[in-house]
Amino acid sequence: MANVNKVILIGNVTRDPEVKFTSKGSAVTDIGLAINRNYTLDNGEKREETTFVDVELWGRLAEIAGEYAKKGRPIYIEGRLRMDTWEDKASGQKRSRMKVVGENLQLLGGRTGGPGPSSGGEHEGYESAPAAAPRRPAPPAPQRQVAPPPSDAPDDDIPF
Question: What is the CATH number of domain 7-121?
Answer without folding.
Answer: 2.40.50.140
